[in-house]
Amino acid sequence: MSVPPLVARGLAVSIGGQTVVRDFDLAVQAGECLAILGRNGAGKTTLLHTLAGLRPADAGQVELAGETYARLGPHRAARGRGLLLQHQGDAFPASVLETVLVGRHPHLSRFAWEGAEDGRIARAALAAVGMSEFAEREVHTLSGGERQRVAIAALLAQRPQVYLLDEPLAHLDLNHQIAILGLFNKLARQEGAAVAVVLHDVNLAARFCDQALLLFGDGRYSVSGIAEQLDEARLGELYGHPMRAVPDGARRWFMPA
After folding, report:
1. For residue 1, what pLDDT is reported?
2. Domain with residues 1-65+161-257, CATH architecture
3. φ, ψ for residue 175 (rounded to 5)?
4. Sign (positive/negative) of CA torsion 48, 25, 194, 185?
């Protein structure tokens, strides 16, 4: 059996005196999409950054395709995993295309410039998020939703094996929410990517993801198949409010009771 692209072993994570997870084990296989769900402040972003190697765990380790971040080093790690941050910052003026080309930097040697193939990949990524016509636009002139799609395009241009997405639907209207989640679902299904995504919409998680990780905010967690995880009792405990499941053919939709 092949080594999973993303594995956490015996992980303990905390922030500001709050325990996010303890004795945490996780494996995201190639071709899988994992939804990370929980209330505000439960530690979803903190855990995602730990899985991305941006902050140390209190205990345990994270592996990309069987190797720790310490062994990989930052350059190789950046070729293996990509992280979509919750907030985008643009300190300097740049065009949309130049911003997306940043995603190619892990694949360049030191002091190398982007070539024609990098430009082709970046433009294909812009097309995938419906932003081709914005290539020469100044990034500071974009709306919040447009800027979010540019950030996603830069991540696509990076072409990692593991995608870690922190609230990728922020600022996006409904049609773009569905399109973006469909895009990452396709990357998993057709290209064997491993995707972990922080979401607030339980129904979108049910529609696009295979597994769910529930963070309860006190160190407890639950992870398994999406159908097993999403039920009225468990979601009610997770969000601190009763939930009701509404049958719709083979699917169930969840809403506040």
Report:
1. 61
2. 3-Layer(aba) Sandwich (3.40)
3. -65, -35
4. negative
